[in-house]
Write a structure and sequence with these properties.
Helix content: over 70%
Distance between the termini: 16 Å
Number of domains: 1
Order of helices and strands: HHHH
Largest sheet: none
Shape: globular
Structural class: mainly alpha
Amino acid sequence: MGDRLKPIIGAWATGCVVGYVAVTNFFNPAMPAPAFEPVVANLMLSTALYQIIAVLFFDWAVQKSGQAMHTAWVIAISQILLVDVNYWIIGRRELEPALYSVVIIFVIWSAVAFVYDKLSDTA
C-alpha cells in the first residue's frame, strides 16, 4: 500500500475540494433544510471523513479492476441509482437537486480517478 499512498492522498484531497465546493455552492442551495441534525456538523470535516472512507474503498476496487476511471464511474453510477434515482422516484428528492447531485457525483469521481491515475506509479 505504500506505493499507493501518493495517489490515495491525491484522490482524497481532490474529492474533498471538489465535493466541498460543489455541495456548498450547488447541491445544498437546491435542497430544503435537513429534517435532522448531521452526525458531523462541520461540513469540511464531514466531507474529509466521507472522502477518506470513499477513497480507501475506491483504492481497493481499483486494485481489483486495474482501471481507475472505470471503477470511479461504476461507483458513481451505483451511488446515483441508489440515492438520486431511487429518492426521486419515491418522492424523497425533487428533480432539480437530484440532477445537481448526478453532475456533482460524476465530476467528483472523475476528478478522483484522474488524480489517482496521474499520481500512480503504474501507468
